[in-house]
Amino acid sequence: MAKETQEGITVSKSKDISEWYTQVIQKAELADYSPVKGCMIIRPNSYAIWESIQEYFNSRLKDENVKNAYFPLFIPESLFKKEAEHAKGFKPEVAWVENKDEDTQERLAIRPTSETIMYDSYSKWIRSWRDLPLKINQWCNVVRWEVKTTKPFIRTREFLWQEGHCVYATEDECIKDTQVWIDEYKRLSEELLAIPVLAGRKTDSEKFAGADYTLTIEAIMPDGKSLQMGTSHNLGQGFSKSFGISFLDESSKQKTPWQNSWGVSTRLIGAVIMLHGDDKGLVLPPRIAPIKGVIVPLFFENKKSDVLKEAKKIYSLLSRSSNIILDDRENYSPGWRFSEWELKGVPIRIEIGPKDLDKNQVIIVRRDTGKKEPVKISKIEKRFSELLDEIQADMLKSAKKALKESIFEVSSYSEFKSIINKKKVAKVYFCGKASCGEKIKSETNATSRCIANESKGRCVCCGSDAKINVYFSRSY
């Protein structure tokens, strides 16, 4: 037998989530650190998850008649500065190319987001009301240079995302679609990733630079920190005016259109790792798991060939509809093989040994709970399919319970500080003033995540009249 040198996760998630996370991404072969500071290498195990997200979301894009395209990575400085508020907001994050454009002698920014490079083209493409709505999405990479500490998938200088950019003839269309995309992100997060989220509008101090308002979905991680999972921005007419985007309406009158932009990134993968994982490693929701199940035959000399023969039959049956692995390596013990697939988050393990063969059954083990279940071989295909759905639903149910238990409604500032220090989420009345937000951040390191609802009360910080109820927490 080969020397079994694989070492699993050596730290408890509850005791040191940062070190636990680092070990999981490396030992489950999800990502690696790059020789370029602030960047990561996305390995095949996690890129396959990103492909599942792309496949799911591309189908939603088609349903909403959004077309995929691609725009340049480099943005001329003159375009980047056209919308003043946007340029100011992103100034600290922009990386510039050392060599200037040879023709224009302009500096070139490496895109932190693509509004400016895309809207220059939109100003040329849009002429008439017949050209609207214009709905374009691109899958690409972006660079934001502010990162000092690299946390793969959660915070890196370069990351992958999709960004949608739409133009509408009317404000009502824009408002409606801005909501549509945050609803789609909520659906993606919950139905695909089994991650429940808080959804709402950002306060003005936290909105996207250049937007009229920003809608967001926020997931709460086990350490009480919020992770912004996706945003949808109503850009109003600001960018259209800055970039000279206009159209002739049906009465041949010149009009200024309305715009939005929306996006999610590979940060979603980080959320899956951190929220669902346990002390054994990764736990993947079946709908995004690249490998749905693994068959592990248990070898004993007297019946080794019979067990392997039956294992291959089961593999042939299940692999018709799911990506299945048959781990028939004889040079590793069953326990070592179990641990490897648990580390990598495979949703279902199927064990079969001589005793199981005698009973014409297998043992199915759930990755999320560790529960074992004997299943007759004749019923394995049906039960395997059912169990994938059950695991997906149960993971979401468990995560919803955890989210609910992490939120506390408080009315005093002392209570607020206590809840934040306990690594929980505080739901409070908030006046929305920048001064109160800055005080809260400086004293607790918490920020407003999104508006829960409009409701009258007293601001938790200054005691003045407040019209909104807001979720506050620390964040990544």
Tell me about this structure.
By secondary structure, the chain is an alpha+beta fold. The chain is 35% helix and 26% strand. The protein has 3 domains: 17-276, Bira Bifunctional Protein, Domain 2 (BirA Bifunctional Protein, domain 2, 2-Layer Sandwich); 293-387, Anticodon-binding domain (Rossmann fold); 405-473, Translation Initiation Factor IF3. It has helices at residues 17-27, 44-63, 77-80, 84-90, 115-125, 171-192, 238-243, 267-276, 304-318, 334-343, 354-358, 380-405, 413-421, 434-444; strands at residues 31-33, 40-42, 67-68, 74-76, 95-96, 108-110, 134-143, 158-168, 198-201, 213-220, 226-236, 247-248, 254-255, 258-265, 293-297, 324-326, 348-352, 361-366, 372-376, 407-409, 425-430, 447-458, 465-473. Strands 3-7-8-14-11-10-9 form a 7-stranded mixed beta sheet. A 5-stranded mixed beta sheet has the order 16-15-17-18-19, sandwiched between helices. Strands 20-21-23-22 form a 4-stranded mixed beta sheet. The chain starts with 16 loop residues before the first helix and ends with a strand. The model has no long low-confidence stretch (mean pLDDT 95).
